[in-house]
Design brief:
Layout lengths: L1 H10 L6 H10 L12 H34 L1 E2 L6 E3 L1 E17 L2 E5 L4 E6 L6 E2 L6 E3 L2 H61 L5 H60 L7 E6 L6 E2 L4 E6 L4 E8 L11 E6 L2 E10 L7 E8 L12 E18 L8 E8 L5 E12 L3 E6 L6 E3 L11 E4 L1
Parallel strand pairs: 1-20
Antiparallel strand pairs: 2-19, 3-11, 3-15, 4-10, 5-7, 5-9, 6-8, 8-10, 11-14, 12-13, 12-15, 13-14, 15-18, 16-17, 17-18, 17-20
């Protein structure tokens, strides 16, 4: 302090490099104090105590964090566990597939003719009754064709009547000629008898008898020929008439087909249903066979399922099936099965017992379980999200006191939507964790808190 006062008295102000001088003096262990200088040994001791204190606190914090994390990893909340108890019973083995809910009935209405849309009577989503008009097509050309066919049939009927008259005339003429020839033959036979009589009494000659016999034989042949000609003409007339009838029948069938086409072109609903699609573009041209409307029964449903083709030999038409929608289980029967695999899957249809269940909605995705076998007296555990198919699993067992979980290797077999078959590693009465425990895959035991 004397140095400071003396310096200020002599120079009258604080030097500019005072603080730099003070810093250098501090680094050189020169300390300016008001009372006394602190020994270096005490300063080192105080510094060492501060470092030890801070280090101890840091170690304690790290140890606490590690201990807390270890405690959290080594334990699980009881409320997070789903535990199932193993028992013995029958398992209706099923294979699992996916499904989609579809209307039990769906019909696509196509255009019966090449035409264009003239009017729209209904909209998609409307409920329609059988016979309700949906839309109208341009029918002028089809109506003209129907009228032309009607005229052709009328003309063919007139031609048939004319042919019948002509045939009857020819047959009548031939029949009259036959009768005349029969009368002529009778006369010749009478002359023959007279010549034979005259020859017997010596008034005739043998030549006249032979001439009469020849005339009778010729007349008989001519009569037979005319009879055969009459029979042939009858057959020809009948055949010609049959051809005309067939021609008329063909024309009538064509007329009936065109009339039905004309009726179908006035597009209407074939039954009570809901209109799910309609081509409502007025003036748009449509071709024969093009889809113009779709109706469906949205009060009743079926399930269209898919399953791996590796299970093709295990399911068939008539197999019992369970459709799972959330927590709901709907019973059904496989009613249709595609014989060929496509992209590794086969498709089938399930007909539901309750096809009007309120949970059913068109397009809803479902799980489908199809029964394929029965296992009696099997050790089983409830099915859960842990199960992905037959194989070996690492499952946690709950201790008797409910305070600890121990991991064990088990072998599981087939399953259904309720139970999984145990092949080894689990005994009846064991309590097994069914919930997802993948986050504890590196732990062999856990504490239940």
């Amino acid at each position: 302090m004397h140095f400071w006062h003396g310096y200020c008295k002599e120079f009258g102000k604080v030097p500019k490099d005072f603080w730099s001088l003070l810093k250098r003096n501090t680094n050189n262990a020169i300390r300016i104090t008001m009372d006394r200088e602190i020994p270096n040994s005490e300063r080192r001791k105080a510094k060492r105590n501060r470092i030890l204190k801070i280090g101890g606190i840091a170690v304690a914090v790290v140890a606490a964090a590690i201990g807390f994390g270890s405690m959290m990893r080594a334990s699980v909340a009881e409320s997070d566990l789903i535990v199932g108890t193993a028992d013995t019973g029958t398992i209706d083995v099923t294979v699992t597939g996916t499904g989609s809910v579809s209307p039990a009935f769906e019909e696509i209405i196509t255009s019966p003719i090449n035409s264009r849309i003239v009017e729209i009577y209904c909209r998609a989503g409307d409920s329609v009754k059988a016979g309700t008009p949906l839309l109208r097509l341009d029918l002028q050309s089809t109506e003209n064709e129907v009228n032309q066919l009607s005229d052709q049939i009328a003309m063919k009927n007139h031609e048939l009547d004319q042919q019948r008259v002509n045939s009857d005339t020819r047959l009548t003429d031939l029949a009259m000629q036959v009768k005349v020839k029969e009368m002529t033959l009778s006369r010749l036979e009478a002359e023959l008898r007279n010549e034979k009589y005259l020859d017997s009494i010596g008034s005739g000659t043998g030549d006249r008898v032979r001439q009469a016999e020849l005339a009778v034989s010729t007349g008989r042949l001519e009569l037979e020929q005319m009879k055969q000609q009459l029979a042939n003409e009858k057959r020809v007339a009948q055949a010609s008439e049959n051809v005309k009838h067939l021609d008329i029948d063909i024309a009538r069938r064509n007329l009936g087909e065109k009339s039905r086409t004309l009726s179908d072109a006035r597009v209407s609903s074939p039954r009570d249903a809901t209109l799910t699609f309609i081509n409502d573009q007025i003036g748009e041209k449509v071709t024969e066979g093009q889809k113009i409307a779709v109706i469906a029964d949205l009060g009743h449903f079926r399930v269209d399922g898919e399953i791996s083709d590796s299970y093709a030999s295990k399911i068939g038409v008539g197999s019992q099936a369970i459709v799972r929608i959330g927590k709901e289980r709907l019973k059904g029967v496989v009613s249709n099965l595609t014989p060929q695999s496509q992209n590794g899957v086969i498709k089938f249809t399930v007909r539901l017992e309750d096809d009007a269940h309120p949970r059913l909605r068109s397009g809803l995705k479902t799980d489908v379980y199809v029964a394929c076998d029965v296992v009696d007296d099997a050790v089983r555990i409830p099915n859960g999200s842990f199960y992905t198919g037959p194989g070996t699993y690492s499952l946690f067992f709950l201790s008797q006191d409910g305070k600890k979980l121990e991991k064990h290797e088990v072998k599981l077999g087939n399953s259904n939507y309720e139970f999984v078959e145990v092949q080894s590693g689990i005994r009846p009465g064991d309590r097994v964790v069914l919930s997802d425990m993948s986050r504890f895959k590196d732990s062999s035991s856990l504490r239940v808190r």
